[in-house]
Amino acid sequence: MKTIEKEILPTKQECTDSLKNVIDALYVLNGKWKIALILSLVQSPKRFNEILKQIDGISPKVLAKELKDLEFNGFIKRNVYETTSINIVYEATDYSLTLKSVIAELSAWGEQHREKIKQSMRK
Asked: Does Transmembrane helix count among this protein's keywords (predicted)?
């Protein structure tokens, strides 16, 4: 690594590897709803309509697609209960919890960004 004014800069290979990792993460978590869905289901398991009511603005078609994507990638589990009518409950997997620090950082950054925008609008 090179050092510029006491700051260690990554090598070209480290940058390339880091970029690949970020691209992979964004590919899996892309879109405006996936992290919100994971956060909702980490709080508690929910049925489809409960999720639909909690996440304002998502359409049923988009919700169905996003849930399938999250299930495919191991972030959520779809539980089917055969009662008089079939009940389907979605819940976060332990793998979802690996995003805890990522979600916390995004939340903190979002709050900071919102404040920055408010400040710039006051000028």
From this structure: no
